[in-house]
């Protein structure tokens, strides 16, 4: 799915990593663990196209990442296949209901058929039907994480990148979020967990 070949990355003229080889295959959980400052956020920026590698090559589904990002249509196609759950969720939330926020992505991607039923099914999957009509920015930290997982499940991306997903979650919320991730993973997609 994703293949990095001898990738080098720098931040403000300082080398973050060099010669990085990484392969993420369909049906795989990949966990990347490391201390602060080891390049985890830089890797996310590379995989999502927000930062360019200095050298080496990044392939997504066998196609060079630079090709995916060269025009508006291909960018949309690329980002429709990628799900990113950031550690800090406050800046990403709309001023609407949880239902509207979850339905927003699929609607923007033209996936309007049975959106209402899909939202309800996804809410039920994570056992959080009571969040449906609440305002996302008023949710607790754990509820916001669950809301993020809901969005990912609705979009059903090829690759889900989860950055510090368990941050701020209690044991019960961690179990629910983990269950959602397990239900998401299948032979046609992959999950990258960064912590």
In words, what does this structure look like?
By secondary structure, this protein is an alpha/beta fold. Helix content is 37%, strand content 24%. Helix 7 links the parallel strand 7 and strand 8. Helix 6 packs parallel to helix 7. The longest helix has 15 residues. The chain is globular and about 50 Å long. The mean pLDDT is 82.
Structural shape: globular
List the helices and strands in order. EEEHEEHHEHHHEHE
Biggest sheet overview: 4 strands, antiparallel
Strand percentage: 15-25%
Unreliable stretches covering 5 or more consecutive residues: none
Q: Count of DSSP helices?
A: 7
Euclidean distance between termini CA atoms: 21 Å
Radius of gyration over alpha carbons? 17 Å
Q: Say how many strands there are.
A: 8
Keywords:
195 residues, four-stranded antiparallel sheet, alpha/beta, 24% strand, 7 helices
Short description:
With 195 residues, this protein is of the alpha/beta class.
Topology:
Blueprint: E1 2-11, E2 14-24, E3 29-32, H1 40-47, E4 55-60, E5 63-64, H2 65-68, H3 72-80, E6 82-85, H4 98-108, H5 115-125, H6 141-155, E7 159-163, H7 171-184, E8 190-194
Parallel strand pairs: 3-8, 6-7, 7-8
Antiparallel strand pairs: 1-2, 1-4, 4-5
